[in-house]
Design goal:
The protein is of the alpha/beta class. The protein folds into three domains: 2-169, 3-Layer(aba) Sandwich (Rossmann fold); 189-362, TPP-binding domain (Rossmann fold, 3-Layer(aba) Sandwich), CATH 3.40.50.1220; 378-561, Thiamin diphosphate (ThDP)-binding fold, Pyr/PP domains (Rossmann fold), CATH 3.40.50.970. Helix content is 38%, strand content 16%. The protein contains 23 helices and 20 strands. Helix 3 runs parallel beside helix 5 (81-89) and helix 16 packs parallel to helix 23. The radius of gyration is 25 Å and the shape is globular. 54% of the residues are buried.
Length: 580
């Protein structure tokens, strides 16, 4: 069967099980858009290519399947570099199709030409410049294989216009065999046995669970490990929901704005069981002062992460789920052998767990629930949203103070219900990512918790949501500032507020929402919060935006200053200076 390269591309995407893609047409990609008309794949027309990339990310985060974005050459391709980088840092499987000028024009500075593969080389796992239409089925198969295996991540296929128009003879792609790309999935048995020995002998162990737990679909395996060992768990910003917050051994989020108990438990631990986490600087603070007395077990599918920041005592390369499943078996054997030999029995960890409970009681997350001036506290809004929605609601956030409050005050009980930009910290992420999440899980309620600064960056994608009938809900915590930057300027720059004021009334978010086909609401007092949320939850035929006018002076606590030691964690004003 003879097809054009464009037809072969769309057919290949169908063969990969692609159900939806997010994109915006243009000259160089135009041949590919023609066969979309006859395809089973749903196309969501975005208003900016950055939105296409973040939608693909949101889709991938909640479904576990690769998100697909399609853009044209030149500015279309450069506009999606930020989502590619975001997906690269957060290990999100994504396949980007980019148009390119004809092969005869490459290198001539033709209209809308740029070196897309060169530009994206540093922010993709791999990219391909297609020069022969006959290669398309195999390249697409390779792209999906690379994006979804090992450490997931984004890939890009660059399609010159003449290749899209060229004829090819259709064939089904064969097995993917890429020399040099052989991800290790099964952990080394000797290392797993050594890890089990350390776990059995630790007095103050902590499981340090990262986003790799979710990428490997290892939430149940993690729970099995906790039940087998009784070891408490911290869940990083990227791992929220990987272990239920309601579990008595869940300590919550560590890091720069983590809760006191999670941060301090890691600092005082004698063993960190690190599963799919990468010792990010926002978690470790000053690396040389991080968990100084702890031995480290580090499990990661990416061998480059082992020893990058902290040298592990027991490094294990492998898929988190597969390694944890074997680790559970080894730990049970180790503990059973310890029971048979009293001298090597598991230490009494009751003092450690008692200490953790004391920290939890002394330093809970807190804020002023009854401010004298009656202002609306952002934490109160998050709690109200949490309490008024199903426990499997998908929560998507932008980046900044609202992101931290959402992670702190929401209770995550299920995996893949928290979507945010962790490593790159991309403002403007929430609205398009929420759209992608709702497309991926139309059966779920999806709330985007956004800041007024973030919202203004990509709010035009609400036009996409309205026109495509994607009924997401957006809560803007509007404090009229670039809030996190303002907090840093207040605390570290002597309150010299340089270029952070945004104004609470410009733009008018209600009118803006209505102009984009959404329902717009405004809330200015605590009494209005509940009724507004109830009204939003009852609307399911269009997007809803609520402008919550929140306290502009509120800061996120606890906090560890950038580059500082986690021992110097600052708690809320009502809790003093913190302690150990």
């Amino acid at each position: 069967m003879e097809l054009t390269g464009a037809q072969a591309l769309i057919k290949s995407l169908e063969r990969q099980g692609v159900e939806v893609m997010f994109g915006l047409p243009g000259g160089a990609i135009l041949p590919v858009y023609d066969p979309i008309i006859d395809s089973t794949i749903r196309h969501v027309l975005v208003r900016h290519e950055q939105g296409a990339g973040h939608m693909a990310e949101g889709y991938a985060q909640v479904t576990g399947r690769p998100g697909v974005a399609i853009v044209t050459s030149g500015p279309g391709a450069t506009n999606i570099v930020t989502p590619l980088c975001d997906a690269y840092v957060d290990s999100i499987p994504m396949v980007c199709i980019a148009g390119q000028v004809a092969t005869s024009s490459i290198g001539t500075d033709a209209f809308q030409e740029c070196d897309t593969t060169g530009i994206t080389m540093a922010v993709t796992k791999h990219n391909w410049l297609v020069t022969d239409a006959q290669d398309i089925p195999q390249i697409v198969a390779e792209a999906f294989h690379v994006a979804t295996t090992g450490r997931p991540g984004p890939v890009l296929i660059d399609m010159p216009k003449d290749v899209s128009n060229a004829p090819m003879s259709w064939y089904e792609a064969g097995p993917v065999d890429l020399p040099g790309y052989k991800p290790t999935t099964h952990g080394h048995p000797r290392m797993i046995k050594e890890a089990a020995r350390l776990i059995a002998g630790a007095q103050r162990p902590v499981i340090y669970a990262g986003g790799g737990i979710l990428k490997a679909h290892a939430s149940q395996a993690l729970r099995d490990l906790v039940e087998a060992t009784g070891i408490p768990v911290v869940t990083t910003l990227m791992a929220r929901g990987a272990f239920p917050d309601s579990h008595p051994l869940c300590l919550g989020m560590p890091g720069m704005h983590g809760n006191y108990t999670a941060v301090t438990a890691m600092q005082r631990a004698d063993l960190l069981i690190t599963l799919g986490a990468r010792f990010d600087d926002r978690v470790t603070g000053k690396p040389s002062a991080f968990a100084p007395d702890a031995s480290v077990i580090h499990v990661d599918v990416d061998p480059a992460e082992l020893g990058k920041v902290r040298r592990p005592d027991v490094p294990i390369v492998g898929d988190c789920r597969l390694v944890i499943e074997e680790l559970v078996k080894a730990v049970i054997v180790e503990m059973d052998s310890g029971a048979a030999e009293p001298s090597s029995a598991t230490p009494d960890r009751r003092p450690w767990l008692d200490q953790i409970r004391q920290w939890q009681q002394r330093y809970p997350l807190t804020y002023d629930h009854d401010p004298p001036d009656g202002v609306l506290k952002p934490q109160f809004v998050v709690e109200a949203l949490r309490d008024a929605t199903p426990d499997d609601t998908i929560v998507v956030s932008g980046v900044g103070q609202h992101q931290m409050w959402a992670s702190q005050y929401w209770r995550f009980e299920h995996p893949h219900t928290w979507v945010n930009s962790g490593g790159l910290g991309t403002m403007g992420y929430a609205v398009p990512a929420a759209i992608g999440a709702k497309v991926g899980r139309p059966d779920r309620m999806v709330w985007a918790i956004d800041g007024d600064g973030c919202f203004q960056m990509t709010a035009q994608e609400l036009v996409t949501a309205s026109s495509e009938r994607i009924p997401i809900k957006v809560a803007i915590l509007n404090n009229a500032y670039l809030g996190m930057v303002r907090q840093w300027q207040e605390m570290f720059y002597d309150e010299r507020y340089s270029e952070v004021y945004l104004s609470p009334d410009l733009p008018d978010y209600v009118k803006w929402a209505e102009a984009m086909g959404c329902v717009g609401l405004r809330v200015e007092s605590p009494e209005e919060v509940g009724p507004a949320i109830d009204k939003a939850n009852q609307i399911d035929d269009r997007p809803v935006v609520i402008d919550f006018r929140t306290d502009s002076s509120e800061k996120v606590f606890p906090m560890v200053a950038a580059g500082g030691s986690n021992d110097d964690i600052v708690v809320g004003p009502s809790q003093g200076e913190g302690g150990r």
